[in-house]
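Re: 7-hydroxy-pyrazolo[4,3-D]pyrimidine structure - here you go.
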Amino acid sequence: MIRSDDLHADIGEILLTEEAIRTRTAELGAQVAADYAGRALTLVSVLKGSLPFMADLMREIPLPLRIDLMEVSSYGGTATESSGLVRIIKDLSASIAGEDVLLVEDIIDTGLTLNYLVRYLRGKSPASLRICTLLDKPARRLVDLPVDYVGFEIPDQFVVGYGLDYGERYRNLRFVGVLRPEVYAPPAE
Ligand code: PRP
Ligand code: 7HP
């Protein structure tokens, strides 16, 4: 596999700039703050991809909220395809019973990961459960999920950056971009 030491050199197109992400995150934060004023809000984010979005979003919500983190991995898929088989690597640290929970994701693709998580979290008796995602790829959806807050709808392209990875790399880019095809498919020998 060709992978340059310069992460930026592997990006073909910048889909969302740092500034566009910042502006939209502030809008989402204001909307969430208005919707949850006076309620017991807990943000639950799903590592690792949601880490930058969660960190930025929570600072745009001026409410006395709590946060919790889960980590899941889907297995049986490939680096670019999720399988829908989900394993919990890190569970919630505290009870969410009676809390208004907002699940914070970086991307919804097939929806299989979130479908699993929503069922799992509903079993913990939250007062309410909603979904907030930075990115939504509706063209790839395999399960119907009501998504309450969406940062950006994006086309059916594999994207990296701002938390999103390919083979665990590129998460530290400040923008969301599309990888050059050479990174996926090495040239024939
Ligand atoms: C990514 C992303 C979502 C999921 C979306 O996680 O963070 O959780 O895939 O795909 P789906 O809608 O097709 O299920 P990934 O399993 O790559 O783990 P990561 O967050 O550690 O990158
Ligand atoms: C998961 C995922 N991770 C990174 N980039 C994408 O486009 C993705 N879709 N689903």
